[in-house]
Amino acid sequence: MKKMKNKPGDIQSTIMVAFSVISTLIMVCMGMMVYWRFSGITQQNIVDNNRKIMDQTVDSIENYLVNMRQVSDAAYYDVIKE
Predict the structure, then answer these.
(1) What are the mean pLDDT values of the chain's consecutive 10-residue runs (82 residues total)?
(2) Which of 3, 4, 5, 20 counts the most CB atoms within 10 A of its CB?
(3) pLDDT of res. 26
(4) Rounded CA gap, 75 and 68, in Å?
(5) CA distance linking residue 78 with residue 50, whole number of Å
(6) How far apart are CA 4 and CA 57, in angstroms?
(7) Is the pTM of this model over 0.70?
(8) How many helices (H) and strands (E) would you count in the chain?
C-alpha cells in the first residue's frame, strides 16, 4: 500500500478552483437577476411612456378638432349673416 503524500499545491489549487467556481456561479446568478429586474422595469417604463404619448396625441387631436369646429362655425355664421 502506497502512502499518499499531500502536496501543498494540490490543496491550494483545489481550494482555488472551488472558490473560482462558486464565485463564478454567484456572479452569473446575480447578473441574471439584475438583467431580469432591469428588463421588467424597462418594459414597464416603455408601456407607461407609450400610454402618455397616446394620451397627449388624443388631447392634441381633440384640441385641433375643437379649433376646426370654431373656424367652421365662424365661416357658417358669416355666410348666414350675409
Answers:
(1) 61 94 98 97 98 98 93 73 64
(2) 20
(3) 98
(4) 11
(5) 42
(6) 80
(7) no
(8) 1, 0
